[in-house]
Amino acid sequence: MELQGSCHCEKVKFTVKSHTPVPFMRCYCSICRKIGGGGGYVINIMGQYDTLKVEGMEHTKFYQAIKDKSLPKNQQELCGNKRYFCGECGCMLWCYDLEWSEWCYPFASAIDTPLPEPKRPNCIMLNYKANWAHVPSSEEADLFDEYPNNSIESWHKKNKAFIEKE
Fold it and tell me: Which domain of life is it from (predicted)?
């Protein structure tokens, strides 16, 4: 499925193909909730990096978070994950990490294409959530204190939402 996305000011527009377009995973980690825009979590979708086409790349910037800010400064490391955003309006666009170079992770909030609604979301990294952030009940969602063992691809296959490669 081809996804189309953009920032709020529309200086950056992009397309990317995704075999896993359901925005099912809500990450409540301290990094995601800080960059996510106020809801207490962020939702990424997985896309094929080699299909990512960007118009207005000159308006993008990226941010690499510190993995563990509680460590002394001389022991802190940057995450490999680069979070791209529009330098004009600040809209989060996608993430990219060389460790998983085949994939990029568009923020669901930047996608303009209608997306399938998840039947049962995963709420992850709950050990790090803000005390005010709402988490659905275990009857409504699968809840994980840390990162779960299932991948985005395996969740889509299990839930019959995986789109085979064209």
Answer: Eukaryota
Q: Which residues are bridge partners to 48 per DSSP? A: 103
> Looking at domain 2-158, does it have CATH number 2.170.150.70?
yes
The predicted-structure confidence for 113-143, as pLDDT tens digits, reads as follows: 999 999 899 999 999 999 999 999 999 999 9
Q: In 27-43, which positions are buried (b, 16+ CB within 10 angstroms) versus exposed (e)?
A: bbbebbbebbeeebbbb
Phi, psi angle pair for 9, to nearest 5°: -85, -5
pTM of the model: 0.90
User: Whose CA is closest to 61, among 42, 83, 43?
Assistant: 83
Backbone angles phi, psi at 32, to 5 degrees: -60, -40
Strand partners, 143: 123
Tokens of 55: 């118009």
